[in-house]
Amino acid sequence: MADAESGTLETMRPNPAWDADSYADAVETLSEEGLVFRIWGGDWCKDCRNQLPDFGAALRAAEVPEDRIHHHPVEKEEDGSKTGPLVEEYDIELIPTVVVERDGEEVARFVEEARVSIAVYLADELRS
């Protein structure tokens, strides 16, 4: 679940307790052919450790091919700014951030937190 250029986020290891049946609509939406998922996070980040394992499980349940899931590990500088692969190009300030692309164009973005899980938030964005 990572591309060689960027590395791997351990926090994306799927949560084995995540119940795909409870999120069937989100899983179906995330399984759409051609969607590419770019995930910025840090294994050191509390929000990432809390949220990304469930998102990893959702992507697994949606059977998203590994070549369409790109991990972008981020480090935090002393001033709080983030550094890492494509951080500047995608204007990443908070993590976790997940960008969903279709045909090279951004179609949805999750940034740091929401009242619902990453999978549900992105599925809602993709359906709207």
Shape: globular
Look at the structure and give the CATH class: Alpha Beta
Structural class: alpha+beta
- Whole-number total of structural domains: 1
Q: What is the rounded distance between the termini?
A: 27 Å
Residue-averaged pLDDT: 93
CATH topology: Glutaredoxin
Give me the number of helical elements: 3
Going by CATH, what is the homologous superfamily? Glutaredoxin
**How many β-strand stretches?**
6
Q: Tell me about the largest β-sheet.
A: 4 strands, mixed
Q: Estimate what percentage of residues fall within beta strands.
A: 15-25%
Whole-angstrom Rg: 13 Å
**CATH architecture identity:** 3-Layer(aba) Sandwich
Strand order within the widest sheet? Answer: 2-1-5-6
Give descriptors for this structure.
single chain, about 130 residues, alpha+beta, Glutaredoxin, four-stranded mixed sheet, two-stranded antiparallel sheet, disordered N terminus, Thioredoxin_domain, Thioredoxin-like_sf, Thioredoxin
What is the topological layout?
Blueprint: H1 24-30, E1 35-41, H2 46-61, E2 69-73, E3 75-76, E4 82-83, E5 97-102, E6 105-111, H3 118-127
Parallel strand pairs: 1-2
Antiparallel strand pairs: 1-5, 3-4, 5-6
Structure in a nutshell:
The protein has helices spanning 24-30, 46-61, 118-127; strands at 35-41, 69-73, 75-76, 82-83, 97-102, 105-111. The protein is α+β, with helices and mostly antiparallel strands and 128 residues long.
Question: Could you explain the architecture of this structure?
Answer:
- The N and C termini lie far apart (27 Å).
- The protein has one domain (10-127): Glutaredoxin, CATH 3.40.30.
- The chain is 26% helix and 23% strand.
- The chain is globular.
- Helix 1 crosses helix 3.
- The chain has 128 residues and is α+β, with helices and mostly antiparallel strands.
- Mean pLDDT is 93; it is low at 1-5.
- The longest helix is centred in the middle third of the chain and has 16 residues, at 46-61.
- The protein has a four-stranded mixed beta sheet with strand order 2-1-5-6, with helices on one face. A two-stranded antiparallel ribbon has the order 3-4.
- The relative contact order is 0.24.
- Residues 66-87 are annotated as: Disordered.
- Residues 1-128 form the Thioredoxin domain.
- Residues 66-81 have a biased composition (Basic and acidic residues).
